[in-house]
């Protein structure tokens, strides 16, 4: 937006009619910079909120115990799981909202199993034994 102002004062003839225009545009630019800064802060906050790698859970991951491999769980996997499939114990990352008989049974293709989900770092350090 450009605003033109001409001086009508007899002591200051309109030598530079763009002087005030420049000041108005400077104020407008300052407002736009503030708006841009606030937008950038908001975007940065949202990115930090949704992309926090520091809050990813760490779990043991292996198909047989004792398990020594430690992994940082990928996005969407916010829990650890220990599954007893009878002949073997499995340790992995898991989605906590899917810690139920149907989801675990379907994933491991088993009707006879036990499992334990937890959300702390390396909390799946022991095989599922049916207690706790």
Task: Describe the overall structure.
The chain is an alpha+beta fold. The chain folds into two domains: 1-51; 54-118, CD59 (Ribbon), CATH 2.10.60.10. Helices cover 31% and strands 17% of the residues. It has helices at residues 18-50, 101-108, and strands spanning 58-60, 70-72, 79-84, 89-94, 114-118. The strands form two sheets. The protein has a three-stranded antiparallel beta sheet with strand order 4-3-5, with no helix packed on it. Strands 1-2 form a two-stranded antiparallel sheet. The longest helix has 33 residues, at 18-50. The radius of gyration is 31 Å and the shape is elongated. The mean pLDDT is 78.
Spans of at least 5 consecutive residues whose pLDDT stays below 50 are: none
CA-atom Rg in angstroms: 31 Å
- CATH class of the largest domain equals Mainly Beta
What amount of the residues lies in strands?
15-25%
The rounded distance between the terminal residues' Cα atoms is 68 Å
Give the number of domains: 2
Roughly what percent helix?
25-40%
Q: pLDDT average, as an integer?
A: 78
Number of helices: 2
| Total count of strands | 5
Largest sheet, if any?
3 strands, antiparallel
